[in-house]
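Run folding on both entries below.
>entry_1
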Amino acid sequence: MAQRHVMTAAGLFAALLAGAGSAMACEFYEAIDTRTELFDKPDSGAGLAVAILPEATQACVMEETADPAGQKWYRLGFYTVANVKYNVDGWVRAQSGAAAPAGGPQIATVTGPAPDAARSEVATPESGQKEAFFSKDWTLDNSRSRLNFVTIKKGTVVETQTFGELSGTISSDGGAEVKIKLESVSTGIDIRDVRMRFLLFDIEQFPEATITARIDPQAIGTVFDEARMAYDLPVTLTIRGISKDITVPVIISKLGDGLVSVASASPVTVSATDFGMDDGLKQLSSAVGDISITPSSPVTFELAFVPTS
């Protein structure tokens, strides 16, 4: 019998990070009304049930296939519940005889390209709707956002740390800024948090790190119709008063008119050496018995933005 479990919040976040790199567009969206098993492969009786999706789910279908028994399966890229997005990569059985929800978008075929007229009917918004979406200012929702970084000590000990307080905005002209309150660093060990705040980040002099960027509204225009797109975002990262320009591959997701997500498509490596933190690393190492600490950290994030009130 296939193993089953309800995915925990931690499991969902891990799945989100694992799936963040996919840049494929949804073939169509499927409303899933009942609790549904998510399988690792579309094979009746052999696949492993890796999670249970809750009811009232709107799922992004990336691919469609059928198993030897003729059962149709959908591969999901992500799903939303109550305007919150969860990235996944797994298969669900298509509901037998399921119809599109009343008033919802028409479902285009996956086995071949949809006729131009059908694609136009699905994708074209009402007059002015797209313009209204891109004319909004957006504010970062800290409760739905995450920024993690990984540290490596002794060459092999890998630990994940996070920042708990983020703020930011995206203006209608594409100007974006995210502030990271460095005091909010959380490693799971109080004394290590204190050492990182004062020895590594020097929060008394540099309380925040900042990320600034300019997003070209025309370059991301397809996100309105496709709901999800890959984008190479040039940003300026400033830590301890030192700025560095980098390009960050991101996935931008439109989760309705009231929620936009900007997530790392792959981990972004940040070097302490680039931001004048070598001495801080040495002090951290000395404080714990001169163990080695790798100066580079992979960073991952998912930033949720809501319309500015």
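>entry_2
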Amino acid sequence: MLLKTNRARTLGLLVGIILFILSICASILLGYTATTWKMAIDAYLNFNGSNEHIIIQTTRVPRALIAAAVGSSLAIAGAIMQALTKNPLASPGIMGVNAGAGFFVVLSITFFAQASLNQLTWSAFLGAAVAAFTVYFLGSLGREGLTPMKLTLAGAAMAAFFSSFTQGLLVINEKALEEVLFWLAGSVQGRDLDILLSVLPYLVLAWIGSLLLANPINVLSMGDDVAKGLGQKTVLIKLSSAIVIVLLAGGAVAIAGPIGFIGIVIPHLARSIVGIDHRWVIPYCGLLGGILLLVADIGARYVIMPEEVPVGVMTAIIGTPFFIYIARRRMAG
């Protein structure tokens, strides 16, 4: 733990906010088309219809804001999942959220001919919610109720279930494969601001909810018996946490597709900085998750310029070594 006092953590939070804002600014300015601060400002104050102004308004700004919101949401969802399951490798994938969202998108394209990105967004959001609540229900069956092991196994089973059916639909439907392939890789490219605005109310509600749940999650982390002894309603806390996870992870996946590893990497990084108190871990996750996805998206523009790689590929490159390190350390322990 690097920051051991509340004063140091507060200062670190301010530094994180500054880096977060700078990352958004960098995302707006950097890319194949050269732009400047003046162009970015004039695009809104003195719009002249130039190619640079159009790119800033319709591509760069929405892309930066979407990356910031999605990265923050995935990181916070990962932190809550790891606390709820007591599994350091937990992430939105552990509850089958990504797989459920992808399956519902492919299902919509195949059977309902949904073509617009907004329609696919809501299909993905519904799929994420169905997957998460199914996992929660299956993990709660039995006399012991909801346990970390049962939740993890139910999540893995549902992820495999949805992924198998998704692959089956893609095999028999080339049109669906063409339309959904880039989305399935995870990307913030080509999304307009309307998509973010349609999901933003749910994300904001979940951000607030995660902060309100921070202290109850701290108590729950000490064990169900201890939490009950301290007067906590453990079932209500777990259910509320599951709803927040659905809103965060489901909303993020609906906007940008299944972007991996942020929900695993960032909570560990946040805890290494501020410790295990979720009153600090959650806001740090929000900032660090947004920064990581913004930086990864900027990198995705330059790797094979003038073409771009999906940002999900970049986060996988960053996150895979860390995932292996955590897994090996857990096995050694």
